[in-house]
Amino acid sequence: MSDYHISVLLKETIENLNIEPGKKYIDATLGGGGHSFEILRHGGRVLGLDVDQDALDYVQKELRIKNQELRFDEKNLTLAKGNFRDIDKIASKTGFAKVAGAVFDLGVSSHQLQIAERGFSFQREGPLDMRMDRDLSVKAGDLINILTRGELYELFTKLGEEYNAHAISERIIRARRVSPILTTSELVEVVGDGRHNFKINPATKVFQALRIAINDEINSLKAGLSSMWGLTEKGGRLTVISFHSLEDRIVKNQFKDWEKEGTGKIITKKPIIPSLDEVSVNKRSRSSKLRVIEKL
Q: Do residues 153 and 205 lie in contact, with contact meaning Cβ atoms separated by under 8 Å?
């Protein structure tokens, strides 16, 4: 298992993909390559996609080692940098215009959380960055220091589902009048305002909302699912792992729409969640949900 990123619900995802040797699959969120390497091991051909160059570099480096361990043809893996919202263009360029299945593992990789200067984690001191694609121009710190009180409130309510959004927005406005909020720990301090008696850190949903906004994750997900469905051949499966209710709702509703239209059959009437064993090994997996749909 890679130390770069531990793939959650890996066994369940691979089982639900029904991989057939020689067929083509897309890993829309490459990360540490966990899903891609397993698909290759089962004889599939993979297009591995990520917006984060670190992920592509890591998998390229791991390829040799993994090949000795899992025995697959390296030529069966194609890597591409890009956002899955553009999967149409990327797939046609790389010869993956029709595929037998796809994986979306939404959320942040362990690597992104561990690297302080990426600014994803409220547990590590770093700049307020949060860009998955470092070519993007706007960072989380820009939003925190530029948005109005009303815009901050809307951001935290809609994308963070934060019930305390009003007070948090107020505290941010007050703090930045004194000096700009530039680091993760400065933001944590302003958001928490000395409160520690919480099950989850008060900054959790604020960081979630900022990350989703900076990377335009909601629009990317909607566009990515729709495009991927177009690429999926009859009998092919789409598997999606989400980590919070916003994403999960989008996936659930989209799957329902496809079933109503008669283009898809939902395989997971209830989402698959990780076993207690998996959660004890990887705490990050505890909020994950896997949904699967088959193309008719």
A: no
Distance from the first to the final alpha carbon of the chain: 34
Residue 1: DSSP 8-state: -
Strand partners, 79: 48
201 CB-contact burial (10 Å; exposed 0-12 / middle 13-18 / buried 19+) = middle
> How much is the pLDDT for 1?
38
Give the three-state DSSP class for 125.
coil
- Band of pLDDT at residue 296, cut at 50, 70 and 90: very high
Could you give phi then psi for residue 7, rounded to 5 degrees? -70, 130
What mean pLDDT, rounded, does the chain reach? 93
pTM tops 0.90, yes or no: yes
Count the Cβ atoms, other than its own, within 10 Å of residue 288: 24
Question: What backbone phi and psi angles, to 5 degrees, belong to 234?
Answer: -55, 130
Query: Following DSSP, what letter does each residue of 133-194 receive, concatenated?
Result: STT-S--HHHHHHHS-HHHHHHHHHHHH--TTHHHHHHHHHHHHHHS---BHHHHHHHHHTT
